[in-house]
């Protein structure tokens, strides 16, 4: 197996490989991998996708079990819930737990207790990469079983969630973006009525395990809960979102992931005997809609659109770089996004001395310690590296790869990292950090 050099030689690389495998093994839970034993003890949607990419390098059968266990909890309308709760754990193990979500009230919800939200659809990409890594008969059979479920996931986002009518999926909660606490959501969240005192009725589990200064505030959480309650009280139906829901945003990352998923599905279709043509056509439409609705030529970057005001959100976050993952992003937009990534705001360079942050380093609200408001994340760096490779910037991709490896070499498999010092933050022994480290080491 080919593995990259961390700069410390083959021995250092082998040690990192062993740390990553041990982390995944320690987080394995009978048919899926928990993101973290301490902070996230259930199954998370996009975590499982990234984790499957890592498993494909060491235990391919677990990659397929990871994805299939998640999709067993798919709703009848095609949505893949962002949390699948482990029934063996008591409700207090995580907040908000299954009682708060009460998913059983929804038509078409699975027997398993889940949330009612989604996350970026990176699952088709994960399935395709797992298959390419080890294209066995068993992998081909698993791909065939997953294909209709992946198609249903895409159909849900394309139909039920096209609230703006412009061909893009809409988020109904910041948690659906995966970048839960990003400054991109501050403006639309400010319009959500909530009182921080509401949190006195609940006990947060995150701040009991990590520094509260690194996590969303109680006021943020009160607003998060208010948005969930609005969606839950409507029985998680999407038909009336435009008229009543307090948070409706088109996100560059989620929609770029949709486009990449269609490209992956076109490749999967060829393996399982389906027609790849419709996937390619949908991918082209998604890219065109992203450029039309979310690209801001004044800044040369992509920005979320708040559907309640029909305005682009001006915060310069890493979300604006995400469409670079689209292989068919037009040359003009790809070029300006790379310029943005290389600016002082993000600092991408051939030789990376510090990792890519999640928010503009020059902004007054940049917080290098607080969840998604500045720290560096392995999964975002991994996605952007794929984009750089597909748009002919291997030298920048290599710099990003080296910075990712150095983060873990210095601090371990943490959930996220200080973007200047590289210090590990959040939960230790984090699943997708370990999984994506294996992928870049093997590349």
From TrEMBL:
- What Pfam families does this protein's entry cite? MGH1-like_GH
Q: Which SUPFAM superfamilies match?
A: Six-hairpin glycosidases
Q: Give the Mannosylglycerate hydrolase MGH1-like glycoside hydrolase domain ranges.
A: 40-433
Keywords from UniProt, A to Z, are: Glycosidase, Hydrolase
One GO biological process term is:
protein N-linked glycosylation
The record's GO molecular-function terms, alphabetically, read: Glc3Man9GlcNAc2 oligosaccharide glucosidase activity
Q: Which family does it belong to?
A: Belongs to the glycosyl hydrolase 63 family.
- The protein in question is named Mannosylglycerate hydrolase MGH1-like glycoside hydrolase domain-containing protein
From which organism does this entry originate?
A: Micromonospora deserti
Q: What is the lineage of its organism?
A: Bacteria, Bacillati, Actinomycetota, Actinomycetes, Micromonosporales
């Amino acid at each position: 197996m080919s593995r990259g050099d961390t700069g410390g030689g083959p021995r250092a690389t082998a040690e990192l490989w062993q740390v990553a495998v041990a982390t995944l093994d320690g987080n394995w839970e009978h048919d899926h991998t928990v993101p973290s034993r301490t902070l996230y003890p259930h199954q998370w949607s996009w975590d499982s996708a990234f984790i499957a990419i890592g498993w494909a390098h060491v235990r391919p059968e677990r990659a397929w079990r990871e994805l299939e266990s998640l999709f067993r909890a798919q709703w009848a309308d095609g949505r893949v819930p962002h949390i699948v709760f482990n029934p063996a754990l008591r409700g207090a193990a995580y907040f908000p737990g299954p009682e708060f979500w009460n998913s059983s009230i929804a038509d078409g919800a699975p027997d398993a207790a889940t949330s009612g939200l989604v996350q970026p659809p990176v699952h088709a990409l994960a399935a395709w990469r797992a298959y390419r890594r080890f294209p066995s008969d068993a992998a081909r059979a698993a791909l065939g079983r997953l294909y209709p479920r992946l198609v249903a996931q895409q159909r849900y986002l394309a139909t039920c969630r096209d609230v703006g009518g412009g061909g893009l999926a809409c988020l109904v909660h910041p948690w659906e973006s995966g970048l839960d606490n990003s400054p991109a959501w501050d403006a639309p969240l400010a319009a959500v009525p909530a009182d921080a005192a509401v949190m006195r009725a609940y006990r947060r589990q995150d701040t009991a395990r990590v520094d509260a200064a690194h996590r969303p505030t109680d006021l943020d959480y009160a607003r998060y809960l208010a948005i969930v309650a609005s969606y839950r009280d409507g029985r998680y139906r999407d038909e009336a979102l435009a008229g009543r829901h307090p948070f409706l945003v088109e996100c560059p990352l989620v929609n770029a992931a949709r486009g990449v998923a269609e490209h992956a599905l076109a490749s999967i279709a060829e393996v399982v005997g389906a027609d790849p043509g419709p996937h390619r056509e949908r991918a082209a439409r998604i890219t065109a809609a992203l450029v039309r609705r979310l690209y801001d030529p004044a800044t040369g970057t992509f920005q979320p659109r708040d559907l309640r005001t029909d305005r682009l959100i001006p915060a310069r976050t890493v979300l604006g770089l995400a469409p670079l993952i689209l292989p068919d992003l037009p040359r003009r937009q790809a070029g300006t996004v790379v310029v943005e990534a290389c600016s002082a705001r993000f600092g991408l360079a051939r030789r990376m001395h510090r990792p890519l942050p999640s928010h503009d380093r020059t902004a007054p609200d940049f917080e290098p310690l607080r969840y998604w408001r500045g720290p560096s994340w392995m999964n975002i760096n991994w996605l952007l590296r794929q984009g750089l490779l597909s748009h002919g910037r291997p030298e920048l991709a290599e710099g990003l790869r080296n910075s990712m490896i150095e983060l873990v070499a210095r601090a371990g498999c943490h959930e996220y990292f200080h973007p200047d010092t590289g210090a590990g933050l959040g939960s230790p022994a984090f699943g997708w950090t370990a999984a994506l480290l294996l992928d870049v080491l093997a590349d």
